[in-house]
Here is the input.
Amino acid sequence: MPINTLGAGFFAVYLVLMLAIGWLASRNQNSSEDFLVAGRSIGLGVLIIGNVAAMIHGGAIVSHVGLAAQVGGVAVTTSLSYALGFAVILMVYAKKLRKSGGMTLPDYLAYRFNSRALRGWSAIIIAFTSVLYLVGQINVMGFILQSLIGLPTFWGKLLGTFIFVAYVAMGGLRAVMWTNIAQFVVMWLALICLVPVINQAIGSWSELLVSVEQKAPGWTSVQGTTWDWRFLLSWYILVFVGYSTRMELVTKLFAARDIRVARWSIPATAFLMIGFLLFGGLYLGAAARVLVWDQITTPDQAFPMLVALLAGPWISAFVFTAVASATMSTTDSLLLMSGASISHDLIRKCFHEPFGITRSESYYLQIIRYTTVIVGLLAFLLSLMNLGLIWQIVSYAFAVMAAAFFFPLIAGMLSKLTSAKAALLSSIFGTVVTVVWTAFTITKADWALVTHPVMPGILTSGIVLAAVQYFSVRNNARPLEKILGSQS
Amino acid sequence: MILGLPWLSFVMLFVLPTIVIVAMMVYCWKTRNE
Here is the structure.
């Protein structure tokens, strides 16, 4: 049976399943809290699966394998940075975020710094970067559905967008969590299906790594085949900073049933994430380098080509469905975050409530749903533009988010003395420098290519925060004791 | 070579992240009553 027929079958089942879950989750939703944080009822197992599913996106499979095949599995898979990033979330954020009683990160920042400006700014950054991420993910979806069902890219992107927008708009975070469980199972089953076929083609794990090192000397070294130490260091820092401000994870902590669940979910998520990245970067990356590297023109083709070469039509169709599913499990979280930033933080908290406009909970629930649909549509339209390599887009969105929030969040959580003005200016300057640097990087300016845009952005953010804090009056926020406790 | 990797790569990929994850679990356990 041809792969496109099988793919259409698998995908149709998947589509019906996602829409059914979205409909089931939409029942008994009466307030923003039900929609955005699932009534704060999420237990440990579901939270871990939700975290992992949200972070492993289509780009993480397609581009991670491609990039690993290109420059080296060890260089690309910075497990230490991931682990340290998660450690920051655990030790600095988890308890305080969950305890604050907010529903979004701007909620927390507004509460911590008693600043509407900071809420508005952070909501705009989250909405903007989430849409950027979404565009990258919708591109992957178009690419995968083309391979899976033979759909033209436009229709693949449209179909993919329709599915995740539909279930998120219906069921909110509850739908995201429930669909993530199905997506998580499909994704791991599919990737495990590849192990025996790769093993048969090349041999065991060790034999594979020996083969790849012979074919591309330096592939298994820490530095990889082409990166210098300076670039490697900036890559480690990018991943560390990016993961310690990873919004899909941070936002889900608000939905944890209690503080213990929020905390324990972090090391478990880190363990599963690193396991996945090692499998994708080292195992699949090495197999792609050995078997298909000479037959492709761009790194993003490595994974689909590897699957097409090794697996029969059934496994291929299942694997591509799984990649589309992994893409959706990230887009849904991003869509929800973006929709929440606009409807909850900007419309309700920055506009309606300060100006005395009173509306019912059901009104805001409707607004969140409409916003979700509009954001999804906008991301789809943007995805039709040619924005270059998928991984680039995702990594720049990473950089903007990291530069905007890393220092303000950490300093705000660790010290009562951090002022709203210092946090806001630090975030603005960090963002502006990152965006400008990114623009020059994309246009290939020689001086900008020296480092990743996150480095100057983070540095600027840290310097501005320290300088403003030093020179400004220490204006503590009102509810600090509740969040920080008396010790800090 | 350990598992087909140079020792430094093995340490960076497996040993150090494991230490960090174990440290996180110890932290969770020690702060379980907070």
Remarks:
- Residues 3-388 of chain A form a domain with the Sodium/glucose cotransporter fold (CATH 1.20.1730.10).
